[in-house]
Amino acid sequence: MTRWENYLLTTKKILDQYNGSLPLHHFLKTFFKANPQMGSRDRKQISQLVYNYFRLGHWNNATMQRDDRILIALFLCEIAPNPLLEFFRPAWNAQTALSLKDKLQFLELPAVDDVFPFAKELSDGIDAAAYSASFLQQPHLYIRARYNKQQDIIQLLEKAGISYALPGGTAIALPNGTKVDAIITDKSWYEIQDLSSQETGQLLQPAAKSYWWDCCAASGGKSILLKDIQPNIELLVSDVRTSILENLQRRFKEAGIKNYHAKVLDLTDEQVDAILPRNQFDNILLDAPCSGSGTWGRTPENLYYFETTKIEHYQSLQKRIASNVVKCLKPGGALVYITCSVFRKENEEVVAYIEKELGLQLQQGGVIKGYDRSADTMFAARFVKV
Ligand SMILES: C[S@@+](CC[C@H](N)C(=O)[O-])C[C@H]1O[C@@H](n2cnc3c(N)ncnc32)[C@H](O)[C@@H]1O
């Protein structure tokens, strides 16, 4: 059997075994660990076939054999010729540089408008067809340059022969999979952060000496952004997961951030204001737990396995957390609500709840589109407590 036939067979084996209960990258890690005969090149190429397969979601599923679908996915998602495609479909391999539209025409296949199967759930202003088509492209890896190091970083990238783009601000777009830490060895020069996530910073507007609570901090991406915009703030970070706050502490150390407090807190607890020793903040950043549907370009298995019933679950969690934390916001203070979701129920409907039920005033915000620039799509809204 040739290497390419073996890759195709292994891809089918993975697709047979995977059921969506774990994130795909965890499943693949375990699968390759159990099959150590595969080298890193084999793992990379098989992973590419599996990921591309899921990029098609349920699109045109009924009419395609699995082998065909794997090869069609490879052809539609990749822009450079590929030895595996050359082996199985040399005529297609000669056409990999065509646009998506021309590739579909070449194969006499219908448009990919329904790759994303939840179009009727989308937030205002998201173009469902463009969003669907965006899944066939791998998103970029974005970094945010810190301490005016953008020029120094660019020099290192050029020296290493890495292509890059400058989409604005201090963001740098890199090809997905770039080994950034091997190129930029001083970790304090940059943060890995998606472009749309970087742009949520425009809503933070931190005043010097103000007291902030990043109440769903995870490993602290938004908090580092906040501190980079205004280092002179007081900051409490919290999350329900102890392990993620340990990651945050490591990441803050690498980023040179020292002055902050960290606390493990479950924000579904109605008494959360009573647990905090100082429970009145000038500003609260609520980067809420959500479906993550705006980031599925990086986890396309969700196109296949996500169940819409989960949206309601996230909405009720978001409302519950918002109503508990707003009690800790000083009058005149701002709440910044963020999701990486494209669903109206997690975005506009939660905004309406915060306005109507919690009495805050919406100042600015909305969807931050990423699908037209190989980035995540997010939602951010800034409120003031009157
Ligand atoms: C979208 S992530 C935050 C991302 C982070 N702000 C960043 O920029 O990297 C949401 C976080 O909410 C946390 N979370 C989920 N349920 C929670 C709860 N009941 N109380 C507190 N935090 C919770 C999760 O552990 C997760 O880390």
From TrEMBL:
Active-site residue list: 340
Family in the record: Belongs to the class I-like SAM-binding methyltransferase superfamily. RsmB/NOP family.
Official protein name in the record: Fmu (Sun) domain-containing protein
Keyword presence, Nucleotide-binding: no
Keyword terms, alphabetized: Methyltransferase, RNA-binding, S-adenosyl-L-methionine, Transferase
Keyword Glycoprotein in record: no
Residues involved in S-adenosyl-L-methionine binding: 239, 266, 287
Gene3D superfamilies noted in UniProt: Vaccinia Virus protein VP39
Residue ranges of domain SAM-dependent MTase RsmB/NOP-type in the record: 118-386
